[in-house]
């Protein structure tokens, strides 16, 4: 069994969910009573957010490379980032990382292909919704992406940073987010929605009768990591 390293703390709520799901997914496959080997390196979310706000991507890459080095030194065989937004620098990070990385974007694209979806909506932080790292991967698979309008993006980002990453999950926020889903579905004809922030599945755990699948990037990423762990 390979040892997994996780860059966690980005944010803490979803890091806990990663750990819970990793244990559950592993034990579905391995029934001898054992548990997976996992290192979690929990880093400072505020540091990364400040650097993304300043558009200082080289420093983001440098920090994450150093933190991956700590996981490698601890004995991790491969690693993942427990968040979507840092995948803005994933290509550079993959080239510099001392150990292989599992991409949340590539894993989610594979899940969308398996569902035969050709057009998806994308929710996430403002950085994720306005960046190219999701469209670049999905376009190679012939899958189109649609994002909410700018005012809707502002709402999602504000709720994400001010509530979800702090573990605050309000019913009225869920309804507000679902309203944006409805409008995006009507405007763009999306066939599914990517929950492109690992806290989003904590408030949108099901499709709420919207008639389209919600792709839980946390769970998808976990499944991809467990496959590597047991390969």
Task: Describe the protein.
The longest helix is centred in the first third of the chain and has 18 residues. With about 230 residues, this protein is of the alpha/beta class. It is about 50% helix and about 15% strand. The chain contains ten helices and seven strands. It has a four-stranded parallel beta sheet with strand order 5-4-6-7, sandwiched between helices. It has a three-stranded parallel beta sheet with strand order 2-1-3, sandwiched between helices.
Task: Trace the largest sheet across and list its strands.
Answer: 5-4-6-7
Strand-residue proportion: 5-15%
| Helical residues, percent | 40-55%
Radius of gyration: 17 Å
Which term fits the overall shape? globular
Query: What order do the SSEs take from the amino end to the carboxyl end, as H and E?
Result: EHEHHEHHEHHEHHEEH
Give the biggest beta sheet.
Answer: 4 strands, parallel
Whole-number mean pLDDT: 97
Count of beta strands: 7
Please report the distance between the alpha carbons of the first and last residues.
7 Å
